[in-house]
Amino acid sequence: MxxxxxxxxxxxxxxxxxxxxxxxxxSDFGTVCGIEISEVARDxxxxxxxxxxxxxxxxxxxxxxDFGRQFDLICLFDVLEHIDDDxxxxxxxxxxxxPGGRLIISVPAYQWMWSRHDEFLHHxxxxxxxxxxxxxxxxxxxxxRATYFNMWLFPAAALVRSFDKLRGAQSATGTNIPPALINxxxxxxxxxxxxxxxxxxxxxxxxxxxxxxx
Length: 214
Description:
- GO terms for molecular function: methyltransferase activity.
- The protein has a single domain (2-213), classed as Rossmann fold.
- Helices cover 31% and strands 23% of the residues.
- The chain has helices spanning 23-26, 39-48, 86-94, 116-120, 129-138, 154-166, 180-191, 194-197; strands at residues 10-15, 30-35, 54-56, 71-77, 97-108, 142-149, 207-213.
- Strand 2 (30-35), helix 2 (39-48) and strand 3 form a beta-alpha-beta unit.
- It is globular and about 50 Å long.
- It starts with 9 loop residues before the first strand and ends with a strand.
């Protein structure tokens, strides 16, 4: 986040904030608001955060709430793949960003990895790097950076998804929370990539990260 060179007291919006897990982290960098389509998730986010954040109902691209201001940073963490009109969504989001403001977008990578897991999560698509860059630039945004991430766990996930396809699995593997020890190990492996991402992009991974400017 430091590399984004945000102003002091930055205005930050997380679209698709879910149950609010990212809001306290984002608040280290400025004043944070959220948009969430699910009433249940909104209520949980407000309860978990003690009502510390303004969280409004809304859908993209057609029903965007009016906060009465633009934002220095807008985050869409694993949101765009859930929306049918991704281009229209980014065009609507671009109107919420201050001139020179930033967007951070993460999406699942590689359409060939499509599986029951994506259907379970109500995805519309997975993205290639070229497709993500194209939709960002077509929305009138300037691309600052695009890279894969979640590289270390990619081989295992690709193997599991391929195996599920071969055996014609009717349910999604990996939708349950793993045992605590396994979860900690996987989280540590995933977090270790941040040191690489600070210096360079990654050549492949389960997900894509894009930073763009208005």
